[in-house]
Amino acid sequence: MLSIGELSRRTGVKVPTIRYYEQMGLMAAAERSGGNQRRYGREDLERLAFIRHARDLGFEIERIRELIALSHHPKDACEGADRIALAHLADVREKIDKLKKLEHELERIVSHCSGHTVEDCYVIRALSDHGLCDHEH
Amino acid sequence: MLSIGELSRRTGVKVPTIRYYEQMGLMAAAERSGGNQRRYGREDLERLAFIRHARDLGFEIERIRELIALSHHPKDACEGADRIALAHLADVREKIDKLKKLEHELERIVSHCSGHTVEDCYVIRALSDHGLCDHEH
DNA sequence: GCTTGAACCTCTAGTTGCTAGAGCAATTAT
DNA sequence: ATAATTGCTCTAGCAACTAGAGGTTCAAGC
Questions:
Q1: For residue A47, which of B109, B89, B51, B128 has the smallest C-alpha distance?
Q2: Quick one: B60 and B95 in the same domain?
Q3: B67 and B112 share a domain?
């Protein structure tokens, strides 16, 4: 059995975060030692690795909860998991698009800044005057 | 003088958000009517538009506070504003890079999912087994 | 067996940028 | 004059943690 610190070291998930996941119901309530400390087995390790991996990929906790539920029904169709992953992918793409627009707008603003005082600083002026923008945002 | 609702309509910033900006010190504490309601002038309108614009571009409130402070010293060099904008641009680019890596990983996972049950669902398996990943994330 | 220090426990509050709601006062329109 | 709308303050909630206080347990060395 692993202590919470050991589990943390092996998964790269911080100790308070593990406790947080337990509180959120992502991790099952851990077994306890005589002195009320958490003890983890191999299954816990695997589940935490799963959670960590999914978080790294940007899945929300609620989605991870759903994915865990699905993984407990191996006979069910994997449509659910697929749908969750595709929705997330769409989400990621949307964020990329928005950030790229921001990137271009910022590039434009910064590259125009040739002044040496705030009076003719394009950064400040562009922010003050929406009319200097290319498009809505 | 404008009421907070009028100001909201003209800038597209919601009423509670305007009050929030005042609380955060981004907006100066507004003048009040006899009945203690906020009243705004042209300067307030301009400042709120500036804030809105900067938020739309993704600047943090703390950065906006700095930009406002800079804009009040028109004789100072605009280096500061430039630095803030460039740092933000770098930030945005970093986020884009990270999201693109996520995008590719998710695409790979989703496209491999040919199974019909969770047992051979690549989405679930990829999340369980880090070894199925291309690279760290 | 005792002591020390690290790791553990629970609980509360803070982070960011708002948003929602309760309960009441002021303003505006009819 | 009255009703509808808008305004006020204050508190709490969101997501996903992180930090700290104040106290307990564990493992190792002497």
A1: B128
A2: no
A3: no
With contact defined as beta carbons under 8 Å apart, do A131 and B87 qualify?
Answer: no
Tell me the CA distances in angstroms from A39 to A8, A10, A42, A74, B31, one per residue in order: 12, 14, 11, 27, 59
> Do both A69 and A93 map to the same domain?
no
Among partner residues A70, A96, A117, which is closest to B124 by beta-carbon distance? A70
The structure tokens listed for A76 are 């069910």
pLDDT in tens, B52-92: 999 999 999 999 999 998 888 877 767 888 889 999 999 99
Does the CA dihedral A105-A106-A108-A109 come out positive or negative? positive
Tell me whether A83 touches chain B (CB under 8 Å): no
**Domain boundaries, position A91:** 80-132
Q: For B29-40, write each residue's pLDDT tens digit.
A: 999 999 999 999
* B71:A118 CB<8 A: yes
Using the Cβ of A107 and the Cβ atoms of chain B, whether some distance falls under 8 Å is answered with yes
Strands (E), B81-135: none
Distance between CA atoms of residues A25 and A68, nearest Å: 11
* Closest alpha carbon within chain B to A81: B123
